[in-house]
Write a structure and sequence with these properties.
With 369 residues, the protein is α/β, with parallel strands linked by helices. The protein has 13 helices and eight strands. Bound molecules: nicotinamide-adenine-dinucleotide. The site of nicotinamide-adenine-dinucleotide has 28 residues, from helix 4, strand 6, helix 5 and helix 9. Nicotinamide-adenine-dinucleotide (NAD) binds next to helix 4, strand 6, helix 5 and helix 9.
Length: 369
């Protein structure tokens, strides 16, 4: 019995590795705080990393930091091709960089991480999408059609500056799927191998903030309240994912994205409701918490309806994976190890799940065998 007289709830043994990192959050913070944060790190020769498209925005942010900026690297590509990572390391050496400043989405953060992995340079990250990579120690690199990922604390940004104002320019077509990608981090944090009560807490609040924020952000892109809530949720999502690890959903998206060069966030948006529908019978309590955070009875259907409300694609066949490649896709995904999923995953189960995602069928909890 507890001191209040109620029986204590049974709690099984769990491990929680708290990750280091300093977070600055708020509108205008990127402009107001960047110099102080770079100086705090002792940075004198910063290499700025941004896509060609975002280079102007990054340039504006560092316009008054001439004394600290050594150069800019703009060869960012999705999924960090190995040759891009090599050229990034070369740029860091050429400029004598002592720190990396990434300004952009997950692809940009990923490029900074690939450079940090080889050089050990500290990263200051200013994310401009909702991918969440900036608070994880996970890096990824692609060679040929094969993406390799790993964990290393050296790639975890030392400082993250979350400035919702920087996400106002994200078009609705990127905003919706990017937030759904973050919701996927939260959903899997409930049952991934490292899940624990703390990651579940982060994930539940993350889903709540993302679901309410992204509706507003898509409806009224300039409304800072929507952008704040969505970016706050993205931070929580990345944090939950960083500790809990990835499960069935992330493994499927990773395999399909690498094999068929599918758009990352859209693939997550489409696949997630079907994974939830499949896992539903094995995780009733977690599903109830996910549904409550979304404000719906049925989490699988709720996630699919949210995706369509945001105008996101609903079928993999509409983003580059047609039914004619279903057999091949099943074989590609089946190479992954799903032994830690809460429900056993047979090849037949994968086929049913992928068939539903490829054709955009309704996600119905428990309907997938
Ligand atoms: P992205 O970084 O490729 O950005 C998508 C598009 O949005 C790009 O064209 C970019 O230039 C544009 N963009 C970015 N910010 C913008 C802004 N504020 N306004 C207008 N346009 C903007 O896509 P993403 O979804 O952010 O990241 C996907 C990548 O991140 C994938 O490679 C994925 O594997 C990786 N990722 C890694 C982790 C991790 O923990 N390592 C977590 C999540 C995602």
């Amino acid at each position: 019995m507890t001191a209040s007289g109620s029986p204590a709830a049974a709690m099984s043994v769990f491990r929680y590795d708290a990750l280091p990192g300093r977070i600055i959050f708020g509108n205008g913070s990127s402009r107001a705080e960047l110099r102080a944060e770079l100086e705090r790190l002792g940075a004198r020769r910063v290499l700025v990393i941004a896509t060609g498209q975002e280079a102007g925005r990054a340039g504006e942010l560092v316009a008054d930091l001439d004394d600290l900026v050594a150069g800019t690297f703009t060869e960012v590509r999705p999924h960090v091709p190995i040759d891009v990572a090599g050229r990034g390391c070369e740029a860091a050496r050429r400029h004598g960089a002592d720190a990396l400043l990434s300004v952009g989405g997950g692809s940009t953060t990923g490029t900074a991480k690939a450079i940090a992995l080889e050089t050990g340079l500290p990263i200051v990250a200013i994310p401009t999408t909702y991918a969440g990579s900036e608070v994880t120690p996970v890096w990824g690199r692609t060679e040929g059609a094969r993406k390799t990922t790993g964990r290393d604390l050296v790639v975890l940004p030392r400082v993250v500056i979350y400035d919702p104002e920087l996400t106002v320019s994200l078009p609705a077509a990127v905003t919706g799927p990017s937030a759904m990608n973050a919701i996927a981090h939260c959903v899997e944090a409930f049952y991934a191998p490292g899940a624990n009560p703390i990651t579940s807490l982060l994930a539940a609040e993350g889903i709540r903030a993302l679901a309410s924020g992204v509706r507003l952000a898509v409806r009224e892109p300039d409304n800072l309240e929507g952008r704040e809530q969505t970016l706050y949720g993205a931070w929580l999502a990345g944090s939950a994912f960083a500790s809990a690890g990835s499960g069935l959903h992330h493994k499927i998206c990773h395999a399909l994205g690498g094999a068929y060069d599918l758009p990352h966030a859209e693939t997550h948006t489409i696949v997630l409701p079907h994974v939830v529908a499949f896992n539903a019978p094995a995780i009733p309590a977690e599903l109830a918490r996910i549904g409550a955070a979304l404000g719906v009875e049925d989490a699988a259907r709720g996630l699919q309806e949210l995706g369509s409300e945001l105008g996101a694609p609903a079928a993999l066949r509409d983003v580059g994976l047609g039914p004619e490649r279903l057999d091949d896709a099943v074989a590609v995904v089946a190479e992954k190890d799903f032994s830690d999923n809460p429900r056993p995953v047979s090849e037949g189960a994968l086929r049913g799940l992928l068939d539903a995602a490829v054709n955009g069928r309704a996600a119905i909890a428990g309907s997938l065998r």
